[in-house]
Fold:
Amino acid sequence: MKFIEKLVNATRKNRSLLCVGLDSDPAQIPDGLSVIEFNKAIIDATSDLVCAYKPNVAFYEAQGADGFDTLKRTVEYIPDDIPVIADAKRGDIGNTAKAYARALFTHFNFDATTVSPYLGLDSLEPFIEYQDKAIFILCRTSNAGAVDFQSLLCESENGSRLLFEVVAHKAGQWNIHGNIGLVVGATYPEELKLIRQMQPEMPLLIPGIGAQGGDLALTVRYGVDARGEKAVINSSRQIIFASKEKDFAEAARQAALALRDGINRQLAELNM
Amino acid sequence: MKFIEKLVNATRKNRSLLCVGLDSDPAQIPDGLSVIEFNKAIIDATSDLVCAYKPNVAFYEAQGADGFDTLKRTVEYIPDDIPVIADAKRGDIGNTAKAYARALFTHFNFDATTVSPYLGLDSLEPFIEYQDKAIFILCRTSNAGAVDFQSLLCESENGSRLLFEVVAHKAGQWNIHGNIGLVVGATYPEELKLIRQMQPEMPLLIPGIGAQGGDLALTVRYGVDARGEKAVINSSRQIIFASKEKDFAEAARQAALALRDGINRQLAELNM
Structure:
């Protein structure tokens, strides 16, 4: 099954555009729990409320070999009908890109990964060749420093465009297998609107609501496709660390439910 | 000790600008050897001939938890006076960038890492804060796809500049701790010349000679600083896979010796 079908199926089954970010920093989880125990409890508590999970590879890598074992077991534990997106932001060339793609898609069995565009198409091809997997290319990220390069005005084949617009445009040209999406931060709603207009069919992975301050109503309005789908709205800390006490899993469920339903209320206001 | 001192000390001690890339793909190493055994033999055979080693993290990550254990043991095995650069091309934000920096600099104890510029300064600050460590920012990479974005003409505060020039310029502005370098592919000698002119003091990590076809004479001429130093000229497969038989370590030594001495002959021609 193609990634996009798996994503849309999960969205419809769970009536959800919510992606839970499994940024399970060991320093933040309740005392006495291992990361894998924590993740399993979060997944058990939320898997009927999400369209995807997104573990951030950095938090696992920081634990060395043990962390990678935890990451693999986390992906295995997630129900088969929920896509799992690696937040890895990889970008490398040739054999290295192939090795990263193999690691993420074959060893860890992720359904998709985030990638960096800076090295160009040949750095992305080894990922794109996995036609049932997908990539989300960093386009307009949610951080303040995003403007340093992403908002430079560039001469492109379509005239003067901001760098992130050039990225969005080329992503469309490169999307021959229908397995490319874009990462667009919720903290820049006007840019999100522009990118959705440029790529009406692409899945958009949208971090930046919650702790980072993105506006939910605008995120939903500008992020979804014409059917009110294909926006993957990520929240991490706000959900998984909703409580740091023994009730953390139930608190995560309540936070996920509130956010999923909040997104759905916005869709309802848009008659979607 | 600052990274740049460690690098220059190793260059002078070993009379070498050569960096050996430990891209130790298990599929390529001689039968019957583990990756750590292979790496130890390569390091034993070459550590008096190099200014640095550069393991490509992807090849280790592809092996999961075992690969990360091998990577850690490889860094530990390299003599203390030879800097070790992680080819990791990381680029992420906030807590994630902090986690990557901690993983690479604290857990694995690398001296430096390659990083991607696309997310801007706040994605690099968590690395820069390790003042005795260093980052090499991807500027003009050695692959064909580099042109897709890196050579876009941009409006910058200095007028119209190619994107990689803007990256090189900003890297200079951000270099308050003297621990920033740039990655510039040997396959684009004119761009290398331009970048060295823009940043006469920065260390440049230069992949792309050998298998990728970069010209050694131009790489040396355009890559070094005014003292004939601070160019870190990387070769990976050409050295570590010089032979795939039992004599692989001796063959690697001969290949490293030939390349180091070839670089030094170019320096001699430049009276350096």
Q: What stands out?
A: The beta strands of chain A are 18-22, 52-55, 85-90, 112-115, 134-140, 153-156, 159-162, 180-184, 204-206, 231-235. The longest strand of chain A covers residues 134-140.
